[in-house]
Amino acid sequence: MSDHLRERRVVSLAIIMSSAAVAQAFGRFTWGVVLPNARDDVLDGSNTLAGMFGSINVFAYLMGTILVAWLSSRLTLVWLMRVGLMMSTTGLALASFAPAPWVLGVSLFIMGLGGAVIWVPAPGIAARYFPATRRGLASGIVGSGIGVGIVFAGRLAGWVDDGTDDAWQRVYRVELVLAVIVLILVFAALKSRGERPSVAGGFGGFGALRTVAAWKPMTLAYTAYGFSYILIISFLVARLEDDSGFTEGRSALVFSVVGLAIIAGGLTIVPLSDRLGRRNTLVVAFLSWAAASLLILTGNTVAVFIAAVMIGLMFSGIPGTIIAHIVSHTDETSYGPAFSAMTLAFGLAQAISPQIGGAIADWQGSFTAVFVLAAIVAGLGAVASAKIPSS
Question: pTM, whole model, 2 decimals?
Fold first, then answer.
């Protein structure tokens, strides 16, 4: 590979990673970081309302997967990413200056849509820079971008928190500036390479999905992950502050550790699945995820930080491994619809999960049952993964 091509690949992958950070870390998971402050500032301290706002975001993500399945037959993967970034940037702008709860709800909805429209094409674009035997590495690199963004969001929340009511909005304002920069870079430097829009993949992309080997257990595993992970990410900071007595700074640090581990998970767990097989990797990853969910409940500082590392590793390791499987069994014209269809089931699980978690927390007066539920569903993910043929 020439120096020019190598430089172009590095720049392109860096932009894709940054886009993933805007889509997921900024547009979706920052809500988990700012939730306690935003809840007390504009939602009258209600965990149920906070969960509902989280559900708005993930419901929009669900709608975004349907939108991607439709747009993928009309736009290239690069153009899908551009459209998604424009959505996410608009949502961040609204959240940055939201004068009322309903505006915040609209912003979270727009960010959810944008997150799906960015995330679905990102691994497919990254995969074109690697041979077929290294597709896991491509997915892992993209997932690492989310980890970088989460680390940044966690530390940013700690830096700007001065006890004022709008501290949570200042987090979104800084992220808005970065999102604008990424949007400009995507338009200026990330180009299509002769790709065509995807072929029609059946309603919602399910026709394309059915051509993927072991699509049923993979879809079940991805759905279990969607339900479980959003409970942990949405309520981790609230659990630590409300139930375990962690300070805001220490809770933000835990969230940042999760982000650091996400970076490592994308670069280690997913490439490892290229050698150990998707089934073995997923079974171990889901069981580890369940164990980490229960470790959080101890409230012990050391145990919590160990759990944070485990959560981060599996946070990127599980979806990255599933995506690598899809990329390996599709081409540039069928990837978009197939992944959109699988993400539809994943998105549906996300859409109901935060509301259920928030209601349980208000009913029980703590987040204990929420994290137990996350562990149980992760166990179901391990069962589904065990049904995947060895590969």
Answer: 0.77
